[in-house]
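Internal QA ticket QA-208
Title: Verify multi-chain structure generation after dependency bump
Assignee: T.L.

Test input:
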Amino acid sequence: MTKKYYLLYLLIFSFFLIAHNSGAQTFKPIFEDGEGRTSIIAPLGFLGVNTENSSIRFQYFYAKSAELNTKIPAEIKRNRFYWGVDVAGSAAGGLTNLFSYGSFTPGTSASLFLGHRSLLFPALDKQGAPVLHGKNEIAIEDWLTFRVGGQVANYTLYDAAQPFANQIYSERFRGYLTQLAYNVLIGGATSIGVSWDVARVNNLDDLSPVTFRQQTVIPDPSGQTTRLFEREVNAYAGGYRSFIQNTFSLDAVQYFTPASNINYALHAYGRLKHDNEQPVYRAGVGFYLFPQSKVAGGVFVESGDLTNEISATPQFSKRIDMGLTVKFILPGLGVPSP
Amino acid sequence: MAKTYKVQVEISTDATLQLFKLEGYVIALTRTLDNVYRIAINDFPIEDELDYYVHCTGWNKTTWSLKILVDDKDVTPEPIKGVIEKGYSAVRGAIKF
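Actual output:
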């Protein structure tokens, strides 16, 4: 990606800062990498945009507070189970493709979450009193989440090695993802998450977008004139392949709430990806600001290939990408009051 | 015998609502699409004051606000608010109406 995209990101981010520099400031857990992956799964509803993978996402989590235990009246039923849905539409190939070539390849993914909160660290005791830890009496809560998801996308590909008639072809990708994630929140400020996921993915991000002008020549039967029809074709060039990938993720977040009006958070993450070939390490850091109750955003810098296992560029600085995440927390969707 | 009322409760928060009590009764609220926990109860017995208890957990500085309607009348014209510190917020109070 070139500098002009970095400038564009900064411009968009500045706009949100200026447009929403007032109002209440609350925390929104939005931490994810350039591929939209995170092990800090927050049971919260939101509508979000991630420019690095050009995705728009809707998420809703069902949750219920504690209730009376009808079987044991002296105790409460803590209702720690939750479930959620997540639907995302994305433009595969990222913003470079979107802006440079004027078209993008749509993809859709959907996930279902099942989870259990307060697994190792109960927030409530069985009588309903808060459980606090340490001298400072802080609360600790945790979530264990199992996620299953699928992805559908159609790509136009170009392969110069094929016979001429078959060089441009469509590929329908069917991906899936299963993820098991555990994350803990300590004292409302420090969060650590680990996850393992198995996914069927493809190497589209490594392919080069190309544009062709396809001409059809129709000669006049008399041979006097010819008519040329021209059509622009956007495709990805290179050896396309899909494969099964195991990813181990580690995320750490520290959230700062100074006395001033600006709250911010730092996110550091690492990924270890295993497919049939050599393992690839991906790592990055993110910086997030929370300027207004319904909007949160941040920038992140990451290297998709930290130890240069698969990149063609040995120079580390050229293996670094930058992305922007902005999330709009769902406004009232017209859900009627009971 | 306490008089009974129709009671509607809304707690808006991005945090996790762990426990809500009204007049000492534990009442389960369910989160809806817009991150508001809600419930409506018919024939809820209330003495002179309405005692409430809210316990939320989550990220610091996350706020919650409680709104209660009794017989369709808002008894919290100024919503009752709380903020999470050290990972939680547990607040008890009473509303006169």
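Spot checks passed. The first helix of chain A runs from residue 3 to 19.
Status: verified.
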